[in-house]
Amino acid sequence: MNCTRNRLPASTSHLNQRILHLKNGSGPTKVNDALQLFDEMLQRQPPPSIIQINQLMTLIVKMKQYSTALSLFKRVNMMGIPSDLYAINISINCHCRLNQVAYGFALLATLFKQGYPPDLTTYNTLINGLVLADRVFEAVELFKKLLIEKLCDPDQFMYGSVINGLCKAGHTIKAYELLRYMESGSCKPVVQYNTVIDSLCKDKMVDHALQLFTNMTEKGVLADVITYSSLIQGLCNFGRETEAARMLMDMEGKGVSPSVVTFNILVDSFCKKGSVKDAELAVQAMVRRGLNPDVITYSALIDGYCLRGEIDEAEKVLDGMVEKELVPNIITYNSLINGYCKKKRIGKR
DNA sequence: CTAGGGTTAG
């Protein structure tokens, strides 16, 4: 085996380091840093490899800058740097995220024309794109076609997208059946259990969700923080707080730590029931564990106080969140507006 | 040596 790395020019490894640095960094400057690095890259001589471009593009896509990524790819093309399957798959995903599945399929056609065979990721991305566009029926059709024509061997991602789509469209039972079908094959579900369990909870079939949870555990599939959070949410929504509390203890016992999301579910549930006091206690508990309340935590609390007409308390929470440099959003303000309206109505009586 | 899926607030 030859050692390619040693033969790369120094500048290339420097570039790789900067990409790596961007990957681990964070903050608002990150997007600009990535774009600046991209500009520098394109001005280099010799031009960067498509691999390096794809790496940087992946970062830009992770920052949800889909249209930026697409226009950058356009520039890359115009510079005469040839595209590859990875680049096209990334572009397809960008179009799908921008709700332009049709363009995604157009790129599929380009792949065929250029004699590149699409791969599993290409199809996964397109199926997921159809699901994102609420075209679940077409997603299922494409999935079936790929199976029947043996165009690819579905993996976790493909099953995941179709199962997710079926759940979103309210066909939880169909999703459940597909999960069972998946289990019968070589591709073992993990995340897919979570999707179906959450959907069963949202469909008010909490007991079925609990049953599926038991099933997965018996099969040796480990429930994670998302599984437990979904179940806790389901139980809380139907007044089964005692069981939710037991579930919280159960997860801790299994070594799964509740996350900010788990606590947010509890905080919101207490607030909706009108017991903001308990919600505040839950917030204290999460802080004690070193978890930082976020915009969702504070918004849920604000809504809780507003529902009770305690607008002064809501304002205190708002001040508290601004002190923590958290930015209230449209949902936060909506609760406050509702709170003010409520107060006004009561005042008029 | 780069692409794709699951949980929370109005």
TrEMBL record:
The keyword Repeat applies. Pfam families: PPR_1 (PF12854), PPR_2 (PF13041). PPR repeats lie at residues 119-154, 155-189, 190-223, 224-258, 259-293, 294-328. Keywords: Repeat. PROSITE patterns: PPR (PS51375). The keyword Disulfide bond does not apply. It comes from the Eukaryota. Belongs to the PPR family. P subfamily. This is Putative tetratricopeptide-like helical domain-containing protein.
